[in-house]
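User: Need the bound-state model for zinc ion:
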Amino acid sequence: MNGKATRWTRQLKLVIDIVYESADPMIAEEVYRLARKKMPNISLGTVYRNLNKLVEEGLVSESSSNGISTFSRHPFPNSTFECSVCHRLSSVPVDLNVLELTRKVRMKVDRYSLQLVGVCRDCDR
Ligand SMILES: [Zn+2]
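Assistant: Bound-state model below.
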């Protein structure tokens, strides 16, 4: 959240809830389609603006392929795993819902780091 004050408008909350409730990455039009069920007056432009804001804040990740952007709830997708035998570093997906955590502890979690240490597949034989 970069120190900038983000206004948690109803639209922003709706957009983030939709993205976080989806297991798969979504295109903006799909977010818009679902948003309209709860807020019929919301515009596609508002959905885009809020998605971009969430990407800027690091709460939603955006990936694009073939010119189509998709949005997903894995803002902090990777953590580092270090093998204590061969010391190779690899990137591991960590499914931590930071938004939920933020709500639960009522503290704004901006980022986290998690260092995993263990034995990698090659060394564990
Ligand atoms: Zn190893």
